[in-house]
TrEMBL record:
This is AAA+ ATPase domain-containing protein. PANTHER family: BCS1 AAA-TYPE ATPASE. Belongs to the AAA ATPase family. BCS1 subfamily. It catalyses: ATP + H2O = ADP + phosphate + H(+). It comes from Linum tenue. InterPro entries: AAA+_ATPase, AAA_N_dom, At3g28540-like_C, ATPase_AAA_core, ATPase_AAA_CS, Mitochondrial_chaperone_BCS1, P-loop_NTPase. Residues 424-437, 447-458 have a biased composition (Basic and acidic residues). Residues 424-458 are annotated as: Disordered. Its cofactor is Mg(2+).
Length: 458
């Protein structure tokens, strides 16, 4: 319950809010500050009202405090709030409830009343008002310090906890601005058909990365990590990215380089991504501009092209000065076609080779799709898999076909045998028997070690 005085103060505050909203739209910022301080003194003495403006973007970058505030306010929804935004995306499991623009949310912190308000101006912003009833006796500064040093960090902390607990990872596809959907990709490290050793190494690398904030600070390096995933189509590169995101609970930004307008566009796009995220650039070899680098310095690219040098400069430079816990992943089907500049030590921290399915990989897929750990046909299937270049995607497709387990596995054997015949025919046609494919069939295997490998570049 508010006292009469508090109710009057509330009215004044409402008037002030109107003035502020108008002021932020029409009047330069330095003048706003002056006007507000005069109004504040005039109307609210001895009560001193303080106002914080939290804009969606600050210096062209996403303002993390804005993001945090939006999430935090959804925890402060009470029956007194008249308007809420309610939505449910097809892939989301629960409703998303947000405070609507223009609505006020009341909060208290260490005996202080705070009033939050979403304001839509030219740029989205949130306003926090709080007042100090003892302003005349010099405690204003004390309360401001509390808000800045304790309350806002508490808002950030609440946001971080909620983010780490959230069950779904968001996938942002490049658009304007980044549009997001919930990533309901079931891929996890458990379901990935990869050599267990490689899987473990990647997970350990990720664990080490997220734990080493202080290390990165101490050695003066940007807290980022780059992975290059290479291998034929259907071997699980995109699935691995989803598994990494699900494992770390990082959001994914899927960047289509072809639609980015020049290095400037790239810069503003990437600075618009949040911390604790993975930026993925798929099929990097297919981006003509990136191969066509020539000797151009990084400022000389055409205005509408993203050059490799622009990209690399960004990776090297911009994330050093802003952004924490960033992961960048490039994928390619043809590592040999990449510009050597991208492969140099220090560019990508790990090169991960995703290759054809191995017997181990098959067992993981069988366990996922059929919930079986063994079967009389396993030996035969594994023998065929060792002889062939067959991708996990091809095997997964066979395992998804309906019927009972025997039917499905017999179908898979048939599929693998047909594939082997085709490969033999191709080899007969090529005649020489000296190409790599012949070697694969004759030796019976490319070697399990070769099928999934990883290099740590630095
Ligand atoms: N290693 C794997 N483990 C589990 N499933 C896999 C694996 N590789 C492929 N799959 C299955 O095949 C589908 C396609 O795989 P994915 O998109 O990850 O391949 P990719 O290597 O990214 O291919 P591309 O080079 O064409 O982008 C996945 O959705 C998944 O069902
Ligand atoms: Mg892919």
């Amino acid at each position: 319950m508010y006292s009469t005085f508090a109710a009057a103060a509330m009215l004044v505050r409402t008037i002030l809010n109107e003035v502020q909203t108008l002021a932020t739209q029409l009047i330069p910022q330095w003048l706003q500050v002056k006007i507000l301080s005069i109004f504040g003194q005039f109307f609210t003495n001895p009560t001193t009202q303080m106002t914080l403006f939290i804009k969606e973007h600050a210096n062209m970058e996403l303002n993390e405090l804005y993001q945090a505030s939006e999430v935090y306010l959804s925890t402060r929804i009470t029956s007194s709030i008249g308007q809420l935004q309610v939505s449910k995306a097809p892939r989301e499991k629960s409703l998303s409830i947000k405070v609507n623009r223009g609505q006020q949310v009341l909060d208290t912190f260490r005996g202080m009343d705070l009033v939050w308000e979403f304001v839509t101006t030219e740029t989205q912003q949130i306003i926090v008002n709080y007042e100090d009833m003892s302003g005349s006796n010099g405690k204003t500064e004390h309360k401001s310090v509390t808000v800045l040093n304790n309350y806002l960090p508490y808002v950030m902390e609440t946001f971080k906890c909620m983010e780490s607990e959230k069950r779904s990872v968001r996938l942002y596809a490049y658009g304007r601005p980044w549009g997001s959907i919930n990533l309901d990709h079931p891929s996890t490290f458990d379901t990935l058909a990869m050599e267990p050793e490689l899987k473990r190494e990647i997970m350990e690398d990720l664990d080490r990365f997220v734990k080493r904030k202080d290390f990165y600070r101490r050695v003066g390096k940007a807290w980022k990590r780059g992975y290059l995933l290479y291998g034929p189509p259907g071997t699980g590169k995109s699935s691995l990215v989803a598994a990494m995101a699900n494992y770390l609970k990082f959001d994914i930004y899927d960047l289509e380089l072809a639609s980015v307008q020049g290095n400037g566009g790239l810069r503003s796009l990437l600075t618009g991504t949040a911390n604790r995220s993975i930026v993925v650039i798929e099929d990097i070899d297919c981006s003509a501009q990136l191969q066509d680098r020539g000797d151009a310095g990084y400022d000389h690219g055409s205005q509408n092209q993203v050059t490799l040098s622009g990209l690399l400069t960004f990776i090297d430079g911009l994330w050093s000065s802003c952004g924490d816990e960033r992961i960048i992943v490039f994928t390619t089907n043809h590592k040999d076609r990449l510009d050597p500049a991208l492969l140099r030590p220090g560019r990508m921290d790990m090169h991960i080779h995703m290759s054809y399915c191995s017997p181990n990989g098959f067992r993981i897929l069988a366990s996922n799709y059929l919930q079986i750990e063994n079967h009389r046909l396993f030996d035969e299937i594994e023998r065929l898999i060792k002889e062939l270049e067959v991708t996990p995607a091809e095997i997964a497709e066979e395992l998804m076909k309906g019927g009972d387990v025997d039917d499905v596995l017999e179908g898979l054997v048939g599929f693998l045998e047909k594939k082997r015949e085709k490969q033999m025919e191709l080899l007969d046609e090529s005649g020489s028997g000296k190409d790599e494919g012949m070697e694969t069939v004759e030796t019976g295997s490319k070697g399990v070690e070769e099928k999934a490998e990883m290099e740590i570049v630095s």
